[in-house]
Specification:
This protein folds into 2 domains: 2-120, no CATH class; 135-290, Alpha-Beta Plaits (2-Layer Sandwich), CATH 3.30.70. It is built from 9 helices and 7 strands. It has helices spanning 2-27, 33-48, 50-67, 79-124, 135-152, 166-173, 175-195, 217-234, 264-281, and strands at 155-163, 199-204, 207-213, 236-239, 242-245, 248-256, 286-290. The strands form 2 sheets. It has a 5-stranded mixed beta sheet. It has a two-stranded antiparallel ribbon with strand order 4-5. The chain is elongated and about 105 Å long. It starts with a helix and ends with a strand.
Length: 291
């Protein structure tokens, strides 16, 4: 609705400018006025498309009908005058149609290009294996959420999650099975994050990195417990008649972003160190670090 209002306002403004131009040309009896008006129609059509070109074209045609009429005989014309009017009408119509069509096509191409850029951007920030955002997508989102937490003075948590003993799992069951488990764990983490208002990404290898806005350490730990339960219950698989249970460990770092404005890297490093401590303790562990 707002966009249509802007289009109508622009068309009205262009029509008023065209009318003012016609009045000036008439007052000063400028020679070659038809050429000037045709150039104006070209300009307004290029600038505003059909919505601006058609009104300006109609005004230019009305001007031609008025100025080319016989002296003291309004709207009566000589054969030469009629011929000039026909040429003027056809020229203006051709210009508006040609430029208007080009304008529409250009707008369509720009929309297609914008959509393509969005698709490319989506591909560039999406991990091909797991289908969730990659670390580049995370970096962009993390800065956005961290700055938002600074403005709103709310807590924010960063969580590193790692699949336990994933290398041994790959060695025992093969990389293909390992990729399947990785995708399933990614899906479980991503679903839990979405339900909790967080953002999950596949950071590298068997590690995932999340940002949880408006989440303190206690709530972040509660989230990790839900992730562990979800992963554990979803990934007990029968492989070669053996039971393979997958677990994950997590490192949490939480802060009040306003107190640590511009220190995003410290939060990431704290979460990474917390994960390191958790994995040293064993499997299915959670470690918390606060700035």
């Amino acid at each position: 609705m707002e966009k249509k209002s802007k289009v109508y306002s622009l068309a009205l403004l262009n029509a008023l400018l065209m009318t003012a131009l016609c009045v000036l040309l008439r007052i000063f009896n400028v020679s070659g006025a038809e050429i000037i008006l045709l150039a104006a129609v070209v300009f307004f059509t290029c600038f505003g498309g059909f919505s601006s070109g058609i009104p300006s074209g109609i005004i230019a045609i009305i001007y031609a009908f008025i100025t080319l009429s016989l002296p003291n005989h309004p709207f009566k014309y000589s054969s030469a005058g009629l011929q000039e009017i026909i040429i003027t009408v056809l020229s203006i119509a051709a210009v508006i149609i040609a430029i208007g069509i080009l304008k529409v096509r250009l707008k369509k191409k720009k929309a297609e290009l914008q959509e393509l850029k969005q698709q490319i951007n989506s591909i560039s920030i999406t991990d091909r294996l797991t289908g969730i955002p990659n670390r580049y997508g995370f970096e962009e989102k993390f800065k956005e959420e961290y700055n938002s937490s600074v403005r709103s003075d709310t807590p924010v948590s960063c969580i590193f999650i790692s699949i336990d003993s994933f290398r041994q799992y790959n060695e025992k069951y093969g990389r293909f099975k390992g990729d399947e488990r990785l995708k399933q764990v990614a899906n479980a983490i991503s679903c839990e994050a979405e339900l909790s208002g967080g953002y999950a990404s596949h950071y590298s290898g068997n590690e995932f990195l999340l940002v949880m806005p408006n989440t303190d350490a206690e709530n972040a730990e509660h989230f990790c417990l839900k992730v562990q339960e979800s992963v554990k219950s979803s990934h007990v698989q029968q492989i070669h008649e053996q039971t393979a249970s997958i677990t994950v460990s997590a490192g949490i770092a939480s802060t009040s972003a306003k107190q640590h404005e511009g220190e995003e890297s410290k939060l990431l490093n704290a979460a990474s160190h917390a994960l390191y401590i958790a994995k040293k303790k064993g499997q299915n562990q959670i470690e918390i670090s606060e700035l």
